Amino acid sequence: MATDVNIPGDELREAQNMLGVVHDTIDIAGSNVDFDEVFGPELSRGSAQNFEKRWEDGKFQLRRQVEGIRDAIGSILDAFEKTDQDAAARLDDGGAP
Fold this sequence. Notes:
Blueprint: H1 9-25, H2 35-39, H3 45-54, H4 56-92
Helix pairs in contact: 1-4
Protein backbone atom coordinates (compact mmCIF):
# COMPACT_ATOMS: atom_id res chain seq x y z
CA MET A 1 0.00 0.00 0.00
CA ALA A 2 1.50 3.31 -1.09
CA THR A 3 1.18 6.41 1.05
CA ASP A 4 2.29 9.96 0.50
CA VAL A 5 5.35 11.23 2.32
CA ASN A 6 5.06 14.87 3.30
CA ILE A 7 8.13 16.56 4.72
CA PRO A 8 7.15 19.96 6.14
CA GLY A 9 10.36 21.69 5.05
CA ASP A 10 9.12 25.23 5.62
CA GLU A 11 7.84 24.38 9.09
CA LEU A 12 11.07 22.59 10.00
CA ARG A 13 13.16 25.54 8.80
CA GLU A 14 10.96 27.92 10.83
CA ALA A 15 11.40 25.72 13.92
CA GLN A 16 15.16 25.71 13.31
CA ASN A 17 15.20 29.51 13.05
CA MET A 18 13.10 29.95 16.19
CA LEU A 19 15.40 27.61 18.12
CA GLY A 20 18.23 29.87 17.01
CA VAL A 21 16.39 32.83 18.56
CA VAL A 22 15.90 30.85 21.79
CA HIS A 23 19.56 29.84 21.82
CA ASP A 24 20.79 33.37 21.16
CA THR A 25 18.51 35.08 23.70
CA ILE A 26 18.65 32.55 26.53
CA ASP A 27 21.11 34.78 28.38
CA ILE A 28 18.83 37.74 28.99
CA ALA A 29 21.34 39.84 30.90
CA GLY A 30 23.89 39.69 28.08
CA SER A 31 21.40 40.15 25.27
CA ASN A 32 21.17 43.25 23.12
CA VAL A 33 17.86 42.25 21.55
CA ASP A 34 14.69 44.27 21.90
CA PHE A 35 13.20 42.33 24.80
CA ASP A 36 9.63 43.49 24.19
CA GLU A 37 9.83 42.54 20.51
CA VAL A 38 11.10 39.03 21.20
CA PHE A 39 9.01 38.14 24.26
CA GLY A 40 6.18 40.63 24.18
CA PRO A 41 5.44 43.59 26.45
CA GLU A 42 3.58 41.39 28.94
CA LEU A 43 6.88 40.10 30.38
CA SER A 44 9.03 42.80 31.93
CA ARG A 45 12.81 42.73 31.63
CA GLY A 46 13.12 42.91 35.43
CA SER A 47 10.94 39.84 35.93
CA ALA A 48 12.92 37.97 33.31
CA GLN A 49 16.25 38.93 34.89
CA ASN A 50 15.01 37.82 38.30
CA PHE A 51 13.96 34.49 36.82
CA GLU A 52 17.30 34.17 35.02
CA LYS A 53 19.23 34.48 38.28
CA ARG A 54 17.24 31.57 39.70
CA TRP A 55 17.82 29.10 36.90
CA GLU A 56 21.49 29.64 36.10
CA ASP A 57 22.29 25.92 36.54
CA GLY A 58 19.75 24.77 33.97
CA LYS A 59 20.58 27.42 31.39
CA PHE A 60 23.75 25.72 30.19
CA GLN A 61 21.98 22.38 29.73
CA LEU A 62 19.02 23.97 27.97
CA ARG A 63 21.31 25.88 25.63
CA ARG A 64 23.10 22.64 24.66
CA GLN A 65 19.82 20.81 24.12
CA VAL A 66 18.36 23.62 22.00
CA GLU A 67 21.54 23.66 19.92
CA GLY A 68 21.36 19.87 19.48
CA ILE A 69 17.74 19.97 18.34
CA ARG A 70 18.44 22.87 15.98
CA ASP A 71 21.39 20.98 14.46
CA ALA A 72 19.32 17.80 14.13
CA ILE A 73 16.60 19.69 12.25
CA GLY A 74 19.30 21.04 9.94
CA SER A 75 20.58 17.51 9.30
CA ILE A 76 17.06 16.29 8.52
CA LEU A 77 16.48 19.16 6.11
CA ASP A 78 19.85 18.56 4.42
CA ALA A 79 19.17 14.82 4.05
CA PHE A 80 15.74 15.35 2.51
CA GLU A 81 17.05 18.05 0.19
CA LYS A 82 19.86 15.74 -0.98
CA THR A 83 17.40 12.88 -1.46
CA ASP A 84 15.12 15.15 -3.47
CA GLN A 85 18.02 16.36 -5.63
CA ASP A 86 19.26 12.80 -6.20
CA ALA A 87 15.79 11.63 -7.19
CA ALA A 88 15.39 14.56 -9.59
CA ALA A 89 18.80 13.85 -11.12
CA ARG A 90 17.87 10.21 -11.71
CA LEU A 91 14.64 11.24 -13.38
CA ASP A 92 16.57 13.68 -15.58
CA ASP A 93 18.94 10.83 -16.53
CA GLY A 94 16.06 8.58 -17.48
CA GLY A 95 16.17 6.63 -14.20
CA ALA A 96 19.59 5.05 -14.81
CA PRO A 97 21.55 4.20 -11.64
